[in-house]
Input
Amino acid sequence: MISQTYVTRRQVVGNSFARNRNTIRHTKRNLGSISQIIIIGMLTLVFALIYVAEGTKATSFDYELSSVESEITEMSARLEDLAVEKARLTSVATAKNSTVAAAMEHATVTGYVAE
Amino acid sequence: MSQNKQPTKYQILRSIVLVALAIIVVRLFFIQIVEHQSWVAKADAQHTLLETITPKRGEVYMLDKGDPVAIVLNQSTYQIVIDPAVTEKSVIEDVMKEYAKDYQAADLDEIYGQEGLRYAIVAKNIPRTTAEKIAESGAPAVWLKKTNQRVYPEGELASGLLGFVNADGVGQYGVEGSLGNLLAGKEGLLKTTADINKVALSIGNDNIKIPAEDGKNIVLSIDRSLEKGVEDLALAEIDKTAATNASVLVMEANTGKVVAMANLPNYNPSDYGNVADASAYVNYTTEVPYEPASVCKNFAFSAAINEGVMLPSTTYFNQGYEIVDGWKIQNAEQRSILYGTIDMKTALYWSLNTGSIHALKLLGGNPNSITQAGREKLYDYYYNKFRLGRATGIEIIEAEGFIPDPNEGWGRDSVYANMTFGQNLGITMIQTATAFSAVVNGGYWRTPTVVEGILANNKIEPLTSEAPVEDKILSDETSAMMRDMLVNNRNYKVRAGIDRAGYAVGGKSGTAQVIKDGAYDDTMSETVGTYIGFVATEGELPKYIIMAKMWGEGHYLDGGIASNLFDTVSNYLIDYYKIKPGA
Output
């Protein structure tokens, strides 16, 4: 059989508890100086990383821009090459020396420009 | 009792540290304050990219039946650069053999034979695609240098008109030189913070980017196919004769537009450095004044007719020569049938100098002698009305030439007598052709032009807002009489079947003596042949003016030889433009 003994507070001798007194004591807890330094250091590091990240982001756009500009230059060079090739292929000298032109017959006047 | 206190080790160390700190502070003061600007400049130099943005040089176009076609373009090409002290000869030999044998610009044995040479260009004008292959091959110690090259896809076509761009990128001669400012554009500027690879970064407060302004694309009024045809015909005539050079101008009679401007022999503008004689660069149609000889009779006759003192039927007594200021001026043609009283139409047909001198006399109001009034009147027509000896205003480089003053200097009468048949003056082909246009087009002198406009957004816009000169200098009647006489001049060409039925082709020849050692060479061992004329549908106003000039050092080349070139060009024009014959 299990027995239980109840003891009232009054029966406890030498107990410092008394009526209307808080039994819990709240003590003020402060961070130590080292902790403060670490936290400030961490915050500074975070802000620094954010700053660097943003700064790098702007620079990365510059590299992207530079890359696009290089691509434009490359494309322009290709365009120039094609324009030159087209001009060479359609030049009068090329047309005159072509085998197609050599096989042609001389044209006769078939009509006149409108006045 | 005094006690000497010895400094402790700590005090010594502290003093040393203080001194060191003081040195550092002083140094920092100098760096930060005194030498501030210098260090800022050094820092800027390391991370600042400052470069000129090169504009794209404008292209040049001709017309092909009215549509612009490119005849001068730009292309990026590459040079192979080596450092002979670093690049092994076998390596560069392999590269050249594999990729660039057609572009070799230097002898490798010669380069490697020179001691201390650290920089050599061994190949030039390598196309981009080939350069990429060379780069991909990874040949050690072989560098590629990008350059801009002017490309002339039509080769030598119209080289005298086009000119070229030299190694410094500056236009020389012709259109490249004359319109260099328009073609070159304006340089831009880029100043920015850059990384170690010179990639421009947007950080920084002093970044500047002024974009380059590309050069204008110029469209010439020259018809490309016609130009080629005219040049081929001129070359064929050179081959047939003793001439070494020929120049041909084809101009629209009623607008002043030049549709062909040939100077033969041509040269390759891409390879201008290998031209043996720099005279090949010259555009003889605009840059060289000369004596076009009897083609000037057109101007003397026009002046007299326009002043109402002469008609084609006006007669005078021809004895084959005139004595002026003690000089005997003879006709080249001394046929007996021409002696006696003849009319001016006959005088022009046979190109008699006595006839044009008679026109000068009539201008002065005295049929028996040359007078001051006659000289002044001829000067007024030549210089003020026909604008001979003056810049015409054409867009390319041109010479002015000269017309002698009617009153100052010795022997004015003989000088002016000579001027009636195109000697003792200096005028250019473009001046002559423009003046001749006025003679036959109804009397309008119009500014000649070789530029159709600026090509922008696929539209041809005017080069300038200034209106060209249009000056009515001769009456319709004068012009009609001159046309009639000029067509009459070519009766023999009609009879020979050269001038076709249904067309009115008129013209006048000129054979100019050449001045040697300060005097005319009376032996006629060397002459310059000129012919000027027009092509028209019979019964209509002329459509085109053609002027041909042929010459060769030490050779007799008369107007008849130049007329053969005119004949071929005039018939080519009729076919090319499908000019309709008259009923």
About this structure: Chain A touches chain B through 26 residues (CB under 8 Å).
